[in-house]
Write a structure and sequence with these properties.
The protein is of the alpha/beta class. It folds into two domains: 94 residues, Beta Barrel (Elongation Factor Tu (Ef-tu), domain 3); 130 residues, Nucleotide-binding domain of ferredoxin-NADP reductase (FNR) module (Rossmann fold). Strands 4-3-6-1-2-5 form a six-stranded antiparallel beta sheet, covered by helices on one side. Helix 4 links the parallel strand 8 and strand 9. Helix 5 runs parallel beside helix 6. The two termini are 26 Å apart.
Length: 237
């Protein structure tokens, strides 16, 4: 399929938020948490395919958003970040099983870096209809090294202010001097949220690089005794 770039926003030094509309259809169906695979030819004529989580909820139209970093010597990420509004990208999808369980529970969404993308999709979908979130608590626990790399901060803070059952917990591992927010790694705050809660009423979704994913899976399963079916994860490396 073909997607036309309709908006490109630099949200940190190396990170862009991109918005697309699908050319071939008026409605692009997907489930919050899924991804698309962008496929483009390199200069040598060979095709490169890279997967990117959709960073927007299903909207009953033909649009989707992506959030991605430039990667040194990476073809696709740099190609996408360099595209001008109106340019076309080719993709297939949606794909993936990193989606919320149909039986709703309280949930902790754990991420670092651009791993926040599928949780932007899930949170916006959950809170678009009160029936999807009522009676449950949701936490977005997000970590990064530097303050300038906090993606979608204002959006999540607005949800935190607006909805009593939504909680945004953001932490920096390398905070600047004078930083008054949370410091440390995401698992430190996941432990605080999860400790003492019934493992049958809460679940976790984890997205990011392998070290962070592994640390949080070990915390929840080995230290706190969660069943593995309540710990859903997707890693980028």
């Amino acid at each position: 399929m073909t997607a036309r770039l309709t908006r490109s926003v630099l949200i940190s030094e190396k990170t862009k938020h991109l918005e697309f509309e699908v050319v071939e259809t008026d409605k692009f169906d997907f489930v919050a948490g899924q991804f698309v695979s962008i496929r483009e030819p390199k200069g040598d004529g060979k095709f490169v395919t890279r997967a990117y989580s959709i960073a927007s909820p299903p909207r009953n139209n033909n649009t989707f958003d992506l959030c991605l970093n430039r990667v040194e010597n990476g073809f696709m990420s740099n190609w996408l970040c360099d595209q001008e509004v109106g340019s076309l990208a080719h993709f297939h999808g949606p794909h993936g099983h990193f989606i919320m369980h149909p039986e709703r529970r309280d949930a902790i969404f754990i991420s670092t870096g651009t791993g926040v993308a599928p949780f932007r999709s899930m949170v916006q979908w959950l809170f678009a209809d009160p029936a999807r979130n009522e009676g449950h608590e949701y936490w977005v626990v997000y970590g990064t090294r530097y303050e300038e790399d906090i993606y979608y901060r204002e959006e999540f803070e607005e949800y935190d202010r607006k909805y009593p059952n939504f909680h945004y917990v953001m932490t920096l591992s390398r905070p600047p001097e004078g930083w008054t927010g949370n410091k440390g790694y995401v698992q430190d705050f996941v432990r605080q949220i999860a400790t003492g809660r019934s493992v049958e009423t809460i679940e976790a979704y984890i997205c990011g690089l392998n070290d962070m994913v592994s640390a949080n899976r070990a915390l929840l399963k080995d230290e706190l005794g969660w069943d593995k079916k309540h710990v859903v994860f997707e890693r980028y490396d």
